[in-house]
Amino acid sequence: MKQLSRYALADEFSARLLDDGRWVADVDRSWWGWSGPHGGVIAALAVHVAAETAPEADVRAVDLRFSGRPGDAELRLTSTVTSAGRSTRMVDVAIAQQGVVFASASVTMGHLRPPAATDIADVSSDVVPSPENCAPFSIPPEIVPMGHHLDLRPTDGPLPLTGAAEPWMRAWISTVRPMTVDAAYLALLADCLPPAVFPTLTAPVAVPTVAFSMHLAAPPDHPGPAPVLVCTRNTSTSGGWSVDDTTLRDERGRLLASARQSRRVLGWEARR
């Protein structure tokens, strides 16, 4: 039996390799976002496939672009490896449903050297409550069904749809079912907070992701389940587009990854 601490996010979606070299995965409606499979799930599956395609290296970055909207059908992921030096690989992943590609990712893979005294680490000096001292916050399932899979505990700052003056949020996040903290898991968590402009609103708007990127920093101290401190901040919303920057940190304040999203904003004027 699989040890609970080694349960990976990809296991949740029965990600598996077919004889023809393609991967398939099933995302049920409990993992949907606004109107289809959650964008963080798509990013996580792309990262997982890339990691399995080039297992001799570690995930260092991912760039994901959406060219369509996914729906109910089984996901099919096709990977292609390009060498970019002696220790670097680029893995391109095309994600399709019913023969139509709706998203594509480019994942940068590279070898990690052992820790050294000369390493530069981003360690936050912010003082925030520990996860056990933060009250849970529930994302309404009628807005984002996959919210019930999350243990989300805001630490400080404004909450969504409160008409606040500042467009940012910060919370400890983990999945209700404990999972391995790997690159795929971090890709999911990077997209788990609502769009950072939401605290300035009093009613939701559709803000679909068009482009998502994530860069890995320090590896986790251990791969076992652990809450991650996720902070997202809106850096720009204008002309029907919105940009969010997100950081993911461990309980020591070390930066695990940083992410950026470009989103379309639909119905903005009607909700202000």
What does this protein structure show overall?
This protein is mainly beta. It has one domain: Porin, CATH 2.40.160.210. 11% of the residues lie in helices and 36% in strands. The protein has 4 helices and 12 strands. Strand 5 and strand 6 form a beta hairpin. Helix 2 packs antiparallel against helix 3. It is globular and about 50 Å long.
Explain briefly what this protein structure is.
InterPro entries: ACOT8-like_C (IPR049450), Acyl-CoA_hotdog (IPR042171), HotDog_dom_sf (IPR029069), Sec_Metab_Biosynth-Assoc (IPR052389), TesB_ACOT8-like_N (IPR049449). It is built from four helices and twelve strands.
DSSP helical segment count: 4
Number of strands: 12
Q: How far from one another are the termini?
A: 52 Å
Number of individual domains: 1
**Widest sheet: strand ordering:** 1-2-4-5-6-3-9-12-11-10-8-7
Mean pLDDT: 92
Contiguous uncertain segments of 5+ residues: 1-5
Biggest sheet details: 12 strands, antiparallel
- The rounded Rg comes to 18 Å
CATH H-level homologous superfamily name: Acyl-CoA thioesterase, double hotdog domain
Structural class call reads mainly beta
| H/E series | HEEHEEEEEEHEEEEH
Beta-strand residue fraction: 35-45%
CATH classification, class level: Mainly Beta
Named CATH topology: Porin
Helix content: 10-25%
Shape: globular
Protein name: Thioesterase family protein
Organism: Gordonia aquimaris
Domain Acyl-CoA thioesterase-like C-terminal: 131-262
Pfam family, one: 4HBT_3C
